[in-house]
Design goal:
The chain is α+β, with helices and mostly antiparallel strands. It has three domains: about 60 residues, 434 Repressor (Amino-terminal Domain); about 160 residues, no CATH class; about 70 residues. The chain has a four-stranded mixed beta sheet, sandwiched between helices.
């Protein structure tokens, strides 16, 4: 969880010492923007700077730093373009997290040893090392097609509970929500099955990055790293290199586009993922970039979409509650509904609890509740 400064205490101390933000920046050897970021809660001083700050303003650590609430759920939303997560999104997810605490005692004991990326970095070479290690752990080659099914076990092994949901088409953040309960050391990952295969794979890889880097969850740095990790995991450097060599042989923009699209279709990922990974590859290796119209690329991508995961899993859609629960337990190796069934049998908990933790209609919650109580 990211620490924050007690801004009012800092401002008061500055005034008492007759210092401006620029004066303080000069004394600490940092930029004025750094001070501004601390006061806005966007950043936090490094340990050595924090000690110097305490000495300069004659404040204790407790006077400067906002105490962390270990009971507070940490929420991470999958970013989508320039869309901004609102406070309503965050607060709703945190409320879901508080309710999910009741379910934790009914979950199987979590593994103590988990895979973690200790020094996450978006540096190209370091990122490639991390994703190739992940692929090796999954038992697939560096150029193999990565299916979302291969990622499922990694969540279970890392103390994360997958919760597949069907929320219909979403256009902002709600296709994947990450709720970490730090005190309980459990993470719930809600994944919307009503998404296209290529997007679903990216969101799963993105969420897996959050699971590997719990200290970054809920921060902009964490979102940026998760996006970078997901793209590289789905289409690592060896894939980007092979695709680039093929595309470079084309003599027209359309030829380049179709070469990239062929790579995307072969790997069952989005055209944009392929393009971005090839772009990163050429930049990292000092090679000429591909000439491509990005507007045309995005239009082409939007016209070439795969099936919805829900359509691939269920026929008809939506499934009956028993089929839905069985698929969550078997296809996604999730203990969520087993734990929920036990909780409902032992506690006087009604359908409204399901409505809130799964963000579903009360009608669907009642149907699911009756199946779980059956």
């Amino acid at each position: 969880m990211q620490k924050t400064m007690k801004t009012e205490a800092l401002r008061k101390a500055l005034a008492e010492h007759g210092l401006t933000q620029k004066d303080l920046a000069r004394k600490l050897g940092v930029s004025a923007q750094a001070i501004t970021n601390w006061l806005k809660g966007k950043d936090f001083p490094r340990p050595a700077t924090l000690l110097k700050l305490a000495s300069t303003l004659h404040l204790s650590f407790e006077q400067m730093v906002q105490a962390e609430d270990v009971n507070r759920p940490i929420v991470a939303f999958r970013k989508k373009g320039s869309a901004k997560t609102t406070n309503a999104h965050i607060n709703k997810a945190k409320e879901m997290g508080i309710l999910l605490k009741q379910l934790v005692p009914y979950l199987p004991e979590q593994r103590a040893l988990r895979t973690l990326i200790s020094n996450p970095s978006t540096d190209y070479d370091k990122l490639q090392t991390a994703v190739l290690q992940t692929r090796n752990r999954l038992g697939i080659g560096e150029q193999a097609i990565l299916g979302y099914e291969s990622l499922i076990g990694e969540f279970r092994n890392s103390g994360a509970v997958l919760v597949p949901v069907m929320w219909g088409a979403k256009h902002r953040h709600e296709n994947a929500i990450h709720i970490r309960l730090p005190q309980e050391d459990v993470t719930f990952v809600l994944l919307n099955l009503d998404t296209r295969l290529e997007d679903f794979k990216f969101w799963m890889a993105h969420e897996l990055a959050h699971v590997y880097t719990p200290a970054l969850a809920g921060s902009e740095e964490g979102e940026d790293y998760a996006d970078a990790f997901a793209g590289a995991l789905l289409f690592p450097a060896p894939c980007a290199e092979a695709c680039y060599k093929t595309a470079r042989k084309k003599t027209s923009n359309n030829g380049v586009m179709h070469a990239l699209l062929r790579c995307a279709d072969n790997h069952l990922i989005s055209l944009n993922t392929v393009y971005q990974q090839v772009k990163q590859y050429t930049k990292a290796n000092g090679m000429p970039a591909l000439v491509i119209d990005e507007n045309n690329m995005h239009a082409t991508r939007n016209s070439h979409t795969g099936p919805l995961i829900s359509e691939a899993l269920y026929d008809p859609v939506p499934p009956m509650p028993d089929v839905y629960i069985a698929s969550c337990e078997h296809a996604f190796q999730s203990d969520f509904f087993r734990a929920l069934r036990q909780m409902l049998q032992e506690r006087e908990t009604g359908p409204s609890y399901l409505q809130q933790i799964l963000d579903m209609s009360i009608h669907d919650a009642k149907s699911l509740y009756e199946e779980l109580r059956h």
